[in-house]
Amino acid sequence: MLIDTHCHLEMVAEDLSSVKEVVAEAQRADVLRMITVGTTVSTSSQAIQFAKLFEGTVWATVGLHPCDGHAGWRDDLAQLRLLIEGDTKHYVVAVGETGLDFYHPGEHRQYQESLFHAQIELAIEKKLPLVIHTRNSFDATMTILESYRAENILGVVHCFSEGIDDAWRVFDLGFLIGIGGPVTYPKNGSLRSVVGAAGLDHLLLETDAPFLPPQAIRGKKNSPREIATIARFISELLKVDFVDVAQKTTSNAESLFCLPKA
Questions:
Q1: Cis bond leading into 210, ω under 30°?
Q2: Residue ranges making up the domain that contains 142
Q3: What is the distance of C-alpha 87 from the center of its chain?
């Protein structure tokens, strides 16, 4: 049994019928559970609706992506709080994706940092882990997270793309790293080195579907079913049984997101 810990179902499929087929395809590939990730109030609400529709198969996160916020982010944050508080069955398993993104010129760093702090504090208040997005901003992201060390925050650095020293900085905080399609890219030896050094104890599997497809389907839309492809690649990389990869990464996800045991 495999878990896709980070996908965007509302972007993978165009309508409800298509979403049902995406979920069915994933299950046929032994990806029996998935977490669909919110980046705005609208997509966070939609993620919860998918979790209700596919109860026991899909779970949701709620969050404001650093590139998807706007000047009224405080109102949006209030809406996220209402979504969490209205979730009586615990479909919401994390806050995020949140973080910092300095990739695009002219990004308002102070605005992003304020939004990031607010979502960390919401996660602490609601006793939820964090799903972290960081692009061209790793040191700044970790410095903020480390300032909350006394609060015993937990989470995952989604789509990890840094070096091994940075990975150990993440692990020292008690966080995991999300590994997806990029580990299969021929020129991404640095990420394979990180996975080899870290081992399974620190990993979650994710697709970020519809983005970042594995090498075998590069240029096409990614899907949660590709978790099986990523797991097989890591099995060969670490020279361990595929079943061990599936069991350990599933256990890691269950522990972090408080999912029911398989």
A1: yes
A2: 2-257
A3: 20
Distance CA 159, CA 134 (A): 8
- What distance in Å separates the CA atoms of residue 166 and residue 161, rounded to the nearest whole number? 9
Question: Which runs of E-coded beta strand occur in 38-182?
Answer: 58-62, 92-101, 130-135, 155-157, 176-179
The answer to whether position 262 is within a domain reads no
Asked if 92 and 61 touch (Cβ cutoff 8 Å), the reply is: yes
User: Helix or strand or coil: residue 203?
Assistant: strand
Model confidence at 68: pLDDT above 90: no
Whether 32 maps to a domain, the answer reads yes
Structure tokens at 71: 């000047």
pLDDT over 90 percentage in the chain: 92
Looking at the domain assignment, is residue 89 inside a domain? yes
| pLDDT exceeds 80 at position 129 | yes
Rounded CA gap, 38 and 25, in Å?
Answer: 22
Q: 135 has which bridge partners?
A: 101
Give the CA distances from residue 233 to residues 30, 46, 114, 153, 245, in Å, rounded to whole numbers and listed in that order: 15, 32, 38, 30, 10
Give the model's pLDDT for residue 104: 84
Q: Are 164 and 173 in contact (CB under 8 A)?
A: no
- DSSP designation for 149: G
Indicate whether 177 belongs to any domain: yes
CATH number of the domain that 152 lies in?
3.20.20.140
Q: Map tokens 């878990």 to a residue.
A: 3
Domain count across the chain: 1
In tens, the pLDDT along 209-250 reads: 999 999 999 999 999 999 999 999 999 999 999 999 999 999
Rounded CA-CA distance 179/84 in Å is: 27
The radius of gyration of the chain's CA atoms, rounded to the nearest angstrom, is 17
Q: Is 215 exposed, middle or buried (0-12, 13-18, 19+ CB in 10 A)?
A: middle
